[in-house]
Design a protein that fits this description.
heterodimer; A: mainly alpha; 9 helices; about 0% strand; globular; disordered N terminus; B: mainly alpha; 2 domains; two-stranded antiparallel sheet; about 5% strand
Chain lengths: ~210, ~270
Amino acid sequence: MSTVSNAPTTPTPARKQRYGWRVVDIVVASVVAVAVGVIFWAWSAAWPLIEGLTVAFPPAAGLYTGGWLMAGVLGGLIIRKPGAAIYCEMLAAIVSGLLGTSFGMSVLVSGLIQGLGAEVIFLLFLYRKFNVMVAMLAGLGAGLALSISENILYNMLWAPEWQLAYVVCAAVSGMVIAGLLPWLAVKGLARTGVLSSFAAGRTADV
Amino acid sequence: MTAKSAELPASFASGSVLARRNPTVKLALLFVVSLAMVFIFDPVTPAVLYVVALAAVVASTRLPLRTLALGHVPFLAFGLGILMVNALSRPGYILWDAGPLRITAEGLSVGGSLALRTLVIGILAIGFIASTDGVALMGSLHQHARLGSRITYAVLAGYRMLQEMPREWQTIRQAHAVRAQLRPDGSLPSGLAAYGRAAFALLVVSVRKGERMAQSLESRGLGLTPRTTWRKIPLTRTDWLMAAAVLAVLGGIVYASHVLGFLEGYDALFS
């Protein structure tokens, strides 16, 4: 494999370079999202089992939900551009939906909400900081977005304590599975050199 | 890793009535019906919708029974899970109990509704996937839904990746079989860590491929405007007719269910 990976960059003003999407950004974001979408699909296949296991205390299933939040944080960490988290999370959700999970097209809405949860954190740091703390916060944001929206949409029958427990479980799961894990993955990716045309592969803070 | 798209290639129903319809219209209809289902919580309405949708998909795609049944498996499994969880956990009139387990009428009704909802969305998704070519879908979204050309081609690149992924996965696992440390009995490790390693390799390959694809797309002038499309996806009067017919049937069934007293909304959850 050649190591020549100077992605063609058109000369643009600094501002556009920081926030505008290059072709390589869109393509790599799509490709990563598709890869994670397949993982989502496999993750969803085990959901009935998790539901069965947590039938005694359903909020505990929140601990499993972080797996569906990885795409947003991963995309945000690699691409480092506005919208990357939402785009990757939504596309991954759509891919998993098209491969056939039983959540049907509701994944469109979930993907948007959960991607937004991660995106807000990257926005708060003005797309300048991408260290482990920001990654875990983004995972946390996605977890909160997921659990709060699901409490409103699906779990309205639950007692408030259960709903709170679900939020806490999803937040922890989001922080670890969707925050720490993608951060480690990006760190590993940067080490292999495939991210050389991205800021994520050049700076030391990953 | 066998993606379901591999079991349901677009060619299965190619040339059928449904395959000739415009992909954007089909996708929009799938979305509208899925959305409408969210507000229905009685078992009768989705059951009727399922039977009608099944008949329509069978008639318009002529899918072989085996393919249809295989496509149902994940939806059935999920639906069964929902039905059981609801029947066992929802409070209400107790039909049957044994120790800590009890089944309630309300649980059966709401669970049955949610399970049938899964099947309705499932059969429509099967029809959509079996009758729609991915490339045509993206082309149509580009033409009819004003999806930008950069995103369109980026997603098409991702789609290509998706098709190659099972083979890629196999290649990686085979490479690991050659180079990785094998277990004492000489077999390839298949634990979580081994799959994690393979998944990471898949990610690396994906990023690398994506970068190469971006280069070739850019060297072919992607992002320049105005763009012309070579193969136009037709959007005809028949497509609008189909949309009107689907919406009319959906509205008709929901209305009839309401008149006959079967239809229940969110309130069913709290009764």
